[in-house]
């Protein structure tokens, strides 16, 4: 494709799985809530690590003390319609696939066992050698600055073209700027629609696939 390799970046929660938040999926399973912490984070009173720390503390208080405990809950997440066909077709076309997500890496690892992603960056749960949670999070993707993660990937990984980002929430908007094409998939807010080049409301990744195949073919002809 004009000597450049397409890079397609997907947010995970709400895009690759139906659930809008892998963190919230765990909370809902346990009957806990991080709303107070979320509001404190949005007001700038706590940072990402403290936000994660408070979530993990709630889970541990409910008896989930091991990574595998969280993994079992995340295993109930529902794959987005068209997930496997979309990823497999794009990979077969020579595109590199990436996940950049503020969600949990345990879910990203599950998705990676189904389809091989070239890059997978998500937040984690710190654990001891025996898998016991320490109560700390591992920050790889700041919620307020996902764009910096994408820019670092582009800087470290050579020349891509085009770069496409797919997201559903306001925290994905910073990824749209460094991208040649941005897609708001099942957008949660009007601001996400406004910031994107293309809006897809249908919860089916095959719709995304049709758009991307057409875009990549146009690049080839150009």
Explain what the structure shows.
With 222 residues, the chain is α/β, with parallel strands linked by helices. The chain has a domain at 5-17 and 79-124 and 138-221: Rossmann fold (3-Layer(aba) Sandwich), CATH 3.40.50.1000. It has 10 helices and 7 strands. It has a 7-stranded mixed β-sheet with strand order 4-3-2-1-5-6-7, with helices on both faces. Strand 5, helix 8 (173-176) and strand 6 (181-185) form a beta-alpha-beta unit. Helix 5 (83-92) runs parallel beside helix 10 (205-221). The radius of gyration is 17 Å and the shape is globular.
CATH architecture level-2 label of the domain at 5-17 and 79-124 and 138-221: 3-Layer(aba) Sandwich
CATH superfamily of the domain at 5-17 and 79-124 and 138-221: HAD superfamily/HAD-like
Shape: globular
Gyration radius, to the nearest Å? 17 Å
The third-level CATH topology of the domain at 5-17 and 79-124 and 138-221 is: Rossmann fold
Mean pLDDT: 93
Low-pLDDT runs of 5+ residues are none
- Reading off the top of the CATH hierarchy, the class of the domain at 5-17 and 79-124 and 138-221 is best stated as Alpha Beta
SSE string, helices as H and strands as E: EHHHHHEHEEHEHEHEH
Strand content: 15-25%
The biggest sheet, with number of strands, parallel, antiparallel or mixed sense and barrel status, is: 7 strands, mixed
Topology of helices and strands:
Layout (H helix, E strand, L loop, with lengths): L4 E6 L11 H9 L4 H8 L5 H14 L5 H8 L8 H10 L3 E9 H10 L4 E9 L5 E6 L7 H11 L3 E8 L5 H4 L4 E5 L4 H6 L2 E3 L4 H17 L1
Parallel strand pairs: 1-2, 1-5, 2-3, 5-6, 6-7
Antiparallel strand pairs: 3-4
